[in-house]
Amino acid sequence: MPHVHCIGEWRNSILTPRTTGQPEDDGRITVDAHTTGTFTGRHHNTGASLTNVTCDGVTLTFTRITTSETVTYSGRIRIESPTLDRIENGTFWRVRNIFDLAGRGEMLADNGDWTAEKVT
């Protein structure tokens, strides 16, 4: 079943923004099995639930939303070995909500590369 490559705990999630080129530790992401046709999951560093999760066993895409940012991830699942899957050619798009002390805000957007791995 192709969905077996979607579900589970994706570790060592790394975001590398094109603006800085500096890798950011993004932690762990869990994609849960689905029974209703809709995947669910959680981004462990922020506690955010995953939304708009789609996976066909080849491409994994999802969004996480917090009060400070919205990040959408998408990447191709590469079966590296019988015990390891990796995100290959992954990308992310992030919009940060920045507010000053007076409550005025602005949105800063960036994008870049995303990598992660999952022990199977």
Report a brief summary of the structure.
The chain has one domain (2-119): Lipocalin, CATH 2.40.128. Helix content is 0%, strand content 68%.
User: What order do the strands of the largest sheet run in, or round the barrel if closed?
Assistant: 1-2-3-4-5-6-7-8
List the domain count as a whole number: 1
Give a count of the beta strands, DSSP E runs of length 2 or more. 8
What is the alpha-carbon Rg in Å? 15 Å
What is the name of the CATH architecture? Beta Barrel
What is the count of helical runs?
0
Shape: globular
Mean pLDDT equals 91
| Secondary-structure element order, N to C | EEEEEEEE
Question: What is the makeup of the main sheet?
Answer: 8 strands, antiparallel, barrel
- What's the CATH class, please? Mainly Beta
